[in-house]
Design goal:
Elements: E1 5-7, H1 8-19, H2 25-34, E2 48-51, E3 56-61, H3 62-75
Antiparallel strand pairs: 1-3, 2-3
Length: about 110
């Protein structure tokens, strides 16, 4: 049986887009893996771990993510805050070729 999964960062992105930025979802998922956190009593755990060459990484089932979102919205419907990307605009000098580390805002 094939299961569609996403890494933790993508799961956090999906949760943020569907449930809003009420939490730092990357940190919340990490805490849920350790058994230290819940979201209104709900817990989303990884479906499996896969080795990526550096270490094992958690992967979440898309079906379980959808079920978690549905259950969360049933418990707290007002938590669906549609949050857009946090884009900031800066005035920069296009001729400045210094590294990003030393380029400061005027």
């Amino acid at each position: 049986m094939k299961v569609k999964t996403v890494p933790a960062s993508e799961a956090a992105y999906i949760l943020r887009s569907k449930l809003g930025a009420v939490r730092a979802w990357d940190d919340t998922l990490a805490d849920m893996r350790r058994g230290k956190s819940t979201y209104y009593g709900l817990v989303l755990t990884p479906y499996l771990c896969s080795h990526d060459g550096k270490g094992t990484r958690p992967y979440y089932s898309l079906v379980e993510i959808a079920e978690f979102i549905s259950a969360a919205l049933a418990l707290k419907p007002s938590s669906t805050a549609t949050i857009s990307l946090q884009v900031r605009e800066f005035e920069v000098d296009p001729t400045d070729k210094r590294s990003w580390k030393v380029r400061v805002l005027p």
